[in-house]
Amino acid sequence: MDVLQMVKWTHFKKRIYISLMDVIFSFFSLSYILAGFRITLSLVIFPVFLNLYKSLNPIITSVFTGMTGVIFRSLFMTLDGKSFIPAFKQSYPEVTFHLVYGLIYYFLYYKRKETSHFFWFITVVLCDLFANLSEVIFRVFIYSDIGFETNIKSLILIALIRGGFAFIILLSIHYYNLFTVKKEHEERYRRLVILSSELESEVYYMNMNNNYIENVMSNAYNLYEKLENDDDKKMALMISKDVHEIKKNYSRVIGGIESIMEDKVRYKFMTLYAIMDILKKNIDMYIEKNNLNISLNVYIKEDVNIYKHYYIMSVFRNLIMNAIESIGENDGNINFKYTKENNRYIFIIEDNGPSIKENNINYIFEPGFSTKFNKDSGNIKRGIGLTVVKDIVEKEFRGNIEVSSNSKSTKFIIIIPIEEME
């Protein structure tokens, strides 16, 4: 099946769907009946489908729907004991309605380059009105008992009512789609910010390692200059060169990540409310996904703009995830509080999980220190989360971090000068 045939088949399936919906809704009629002229709700949803399926030719779709409706309605009439031919004769003038409807819609709206919802409403009302008039005129030539002049006002009113309902449905769909797109955009933005925060932590740690690599390279070269044995000197020089290549590749990776973040995900500043809103949603999803019974509560007295927001989010996220891992499968609460005192920002993250042993408190910020051991896999956490937190707070914000722990709670207090945040 080539592309053209696939398109035709897709259009055919859409027309079948519209026709079936038209048949179903044709059973729901307004109580106002006009001498055999049924006022059905199918003509409320039909123009909505024409708007939603813009790729369909409205003339073909309208005639197809009309013919399908006539056949189905004639068949249903036979269930009441009526013969098919008389039933068909009673229903087939409806095809006139659909033909005129499709023609007016095609030339008035479908072929128009610039449109609006209001113009669509006007088009639908005119299509309904003149299609109804055409059907009535056609029926006059067949059934002489229809009072044509007395019903024009009624047809205008019905066209307005049906057009109004269709307009409301279309607007509802439109705004629902806008809401859905906005929600999806917010979700992507939230994930992007969280990802950026995680990348910021990793890049920060990689830069720390870069300094260690620089020291190793420098020491290897110093060793090369001090050694007297030629073989040893060659080995030391080779190590220095290899480490230099590692450093260059490492720097390229860091530069690439920072370039992506600079181009795609950096914003001048974020408010603390926005940061914590994104972080809380992410943490709540993590808690729900892992079936944990932990609550994260956020208390912010007043909002503040934060320029190094990826760093601060990385700090908060590391500390909160640390608290979650500490609480584990137990019931727990994590409280985030923010206050401003004496030109300093004070952030407190407190949890009611197991306390930190007194002999461990002095080492929790050391690289590689971790008490998180997986008994099943035998793996131990790499122990850099709190190290990164301390380095960011002290080096990026020129602040300090304090920790206290007892049988009731563990509390991390971050103190940052105002001028370093804004």
UniProtKB/TrEMBL annotation:
Alphabetized Pfam families for the sequence: HATPase_c
EC number: 2.7.13.3
Keywords: Kinase, Membrane, Phosphoprotein, Transferase, Transmembrane, Transmembrane helix, Two-component regulatory system
GO MF entries: phosphorelay sensor kinase activity
Domain Histidine kinase: 194-420
Top-level EC class: transferase
Transmembrane segments annotated in the record for this chain: 20-53, 59-79, 91-108, 120-142, 154-176
Residue ranges of coiled coil: none
Reactions accelerated catalytically: ATP + protein L-histidine = ADP + protein N-phospho-L-histidine
CDD domains (alphabetical): HATPase
InterPro entries in the cross-refs: HATPase_C_sf, HATPase_dom, His_kinase_dom, Sig_transdc_His_kin-like_C
SUPFAM superfamilies hit by this protein: ATPase domain of HSP90 chaperone/DNA topoisomerase II/histidine kinase
UniProt key word Transmembrane helix: yes
Record's protein name: histidine kinase
